[in-house]
Amino acid sequence: MKYKKEICDVYGERMHPKNKKRFRNYVCSVAKSLDYKCNIESGLLAKNIIIGNPKKAEFVVTAHYDTPPRLPKFFVKHMLFHSLISLPLLFLGFNFLLTQVFLFFNLSINFVNIVFPTINYLICGGLVGYSLGFLGNANKKNYNDNSSGILGILNLMEKYKSDEFKSKICFVLTDNEEKGLLGALYYSRKHKKSLRCQTVINLDCIGNGDQFNLYYCGEKETEIIKSIKESKQEKYKFKSIKSSLLSMSDHIAFRKSNHVCLLSVEQKNNKSLYNQIHSINDTIINENNIDFVVSTLNDVMKKENKFYKKKKLDLINKTDKKAEELCINN
Known about the structure:
Radius of gyration: 22 Å
Strand content: 5-15%
Structural class: alpha/beta
Low-confidence stretches: none
Number of strands: 8
Number of helices: 11
Strand order of the largest sheet: 1-2-4-3-5-8-6-7
CATH class of the largest domain: Alpha Beta
Distance between the termini: 34 Å
């Protein structure tokens, strides 16, 4: 598997702006060496790397390139519990103690009304800012989250470097997924017309585990999930799951498209691997996982994209004169 050392070690930390820029320059140089068009789409809160033509592609393959701050293992393992229960209880406890201090020293009510909320907001804002990666110490090892997704994309690019089919794929490396899916939301808003008939495949944490969870939004499995499950595979297991608070990833931004998120953070025996990401334990990446994803997606994308053709026909047959502006402009 190519690019592992560069992505996992040389450019392994991608939280701070300086290192993000170094990484973007590296990826663009790789893309150009493989004869792909590469550019950076810069929004107010994100800088996405676009490889290929986002308007003419049938498939959009995405992965976030930013990395999280270092968090304690116990916090990562029970992140939802700490976010919804333990942190609010901590804030309430701090409020109580601070109130007692003010009462003990008999401070004026004006002083309490100014200082009390200020300290509270600073502490709360600091904790939230750290957990989202706006502040704090960057995690140095990010093998699975999400160097693995980047490796999947780069090795897919290798597959199609001399293939006429590559014009039908756009690869997108999104920024600031850890800060609230900002890069993916920016991309989906900017390219919403084209995305109406495109298939979006999001790669997030695909480097470990022997089960690939296929996440989707909505009531029914998407067409791309059905295609992936029909592909030949022996060693790995596929499990389709409707997205919840525990499965937040960039695919949420593409919920109106034919979409899927491949997320391998679980073993076949249901053992969770979530406690390895966002911490110093994120040092495992199985090359076989990446090879399997690349091979599977290659097989799936090489088949006739019936969804894409159907959506284009639907738009062409619409009586609305503006239909051609939606996604039939190629």
